Structures are given as structure tokens and as C-alpha cells.
């Protein structure tokens, strides 16, 4: 075997530079000086025998080969991390570090209720949480920045494994004084598309809501401007329209101290699937399935 192989540290520096697009910020993210990071990347280029990064005063531009090597570097680092995970999984499962992304329409409503229970059941588990949209979370999973993702399906996740936790029903939320307030459920045909407020692009709940209503004109007419469910609730509470909320947000108290009523949406797909997702072939699959069972059980208890 050649003694002149790239080091993991050099690959980490290269990835950091790609993600940050700036030598100073990349060095900060790696907790090294800029000169150390720059020297590490130059050593890597010397080893490979070609330029990976074009350096100018204002721009850091990766060559075509540099981009290809970054993609491979992600995979190499991910495999290196999984070497340690194999030993950990063979020892005491669900102990040590675990990095999990959670989407914004789940994190503030489910985690405060579940995490205290999880800490009691698995006190040796160090769960590091990262809140990001579904697309960003899937990308973080692919690049090895996180080990698993707590998210809502359906969503294009690529090659992953998943465990179903529970279904989260969708509700229509509107001002209490609305004269069209029905006694029980709301049919999609009853929704006024000119008053519908939804999350802006990037939030999968918007697509789940539109799919549940199955009315193509809603996508064209609805106002998509909410940056969070709390923002949408404030808009509805101020008489600006109506919106769709997941049941977990309502159980989490998002409508407390508001003048908003909520009724279940009555349609064939009026729910989103909450699932735990991880990389296909991960050596920690048994741990993730154990975690999924715990989360599912705790959600049922809370339900």
C-alpha cells in the first residue's frame, strides 16, 4: 500500500473549504488557523499532483476534479466515522454520540415532550440536534453531517432506510368568529383558496397540505409566505386568512392564547407520516430501529 495517501484531516479541510467558500471561515469551522488549513490543502494538491482549488483575492473556485474529489471525500469521512460506529453498536447500543436532524414543523412541538422521556430511558445517549428543512436534512444525512433524520413523509429522500413512527393528522385553522365554522370536519372543497395561508417553499408541510386537499387551484391561489407555523398562526389570529396545521402542533399548544379554532381535514390523505430516516447500509441500523421504537412508544403515551 502506498505511504502517500491523503489524510482524513486533509479531506476535512477540503470539505470545509467547499462548504464555507472562504479560507478563514473554513479554518474556524475546523478549529485551526487559516495557514494550517491552507497548508493542508496544498499538501493534498501536491500529493495528487494537480490543482483542486483556484485561489484569487475574492473568490475560491473548485476545479472540476476538485468537485469530484470533494464528493469522494464526503464518502471516505462517512465510512471512517462508521468504523467507530461499528464498535460502538457492538458494545452498548444507544450510548455515546448521535447526531439527528429534525425538521422545523416537528422540532418545537414533539421534542419538548419526548426528550425528557428519552433522557430517562437512555441516559448514556448524547443526542445532538440540528433543526433544518427536509431538503437540507437529507443533504446533511447524505454527506454524513448527521446520523439520522426525524422528518415527515412523503418526501424524496433518495437511498435511505426508514422506520414509521406515527401518522400526524392535518387540521384547518381559522378565526373562531368565522360564520362558516363547521361542527366537526372540513372538506377540502370548503377551503377558500383566496384566504389560504401556507408555509413558503422549502417546507415539506406545504406540499403535504396541498396534496391532502387535492385541489390544483390551491397551489396557484394560496399565499405562501409563512416562515414558520407560529408566523402562520399569528396571521390567522389577526384575521388574515386560514391555514393547515399538523395535529402535533395543536397538541403542542400552538393555538393557546389565540382566538383560533381548528377542525380535522376530511380527505383521503389528510395526514403526514412521521418517520426516522437513516443511510442505507449504516452499521447503526439496529440502534436506529431501537430509537424508532422508543420514539413511537413515547409518542403513543403522549397521544
From TrEMBL:
HTH lysR-type domain sequence ranges: 6-63
GO CC annotations on file: protein-DNA complex
InterPro entries with a match to the protein in the record: LysR_HTH_N (IPR000847), LysR_subst-bd (IPR005119), WH-like_DNA-bd_sf (IPR036388), WH_DNA-bd_sf (IPR036390)
SUPFAM superfamilies with a match to the protein in the record: Periplasmic binding protein-like II, Winged helix' DNA-binding domain
UniProt KW keywords: DNA-binding, Transcription, Transcription regulation
GO molecular function: DNA binding; DNA-binding transcription factor activity
Keyword Transcription: yes
UniProt family annotation: Belongs to the LysR transcriptional regulatory family.
Protein name: LysR family hydrogen peroxide-inducible transcriptional activator
Annotated organism of origin: Sphingobium jiangsuense
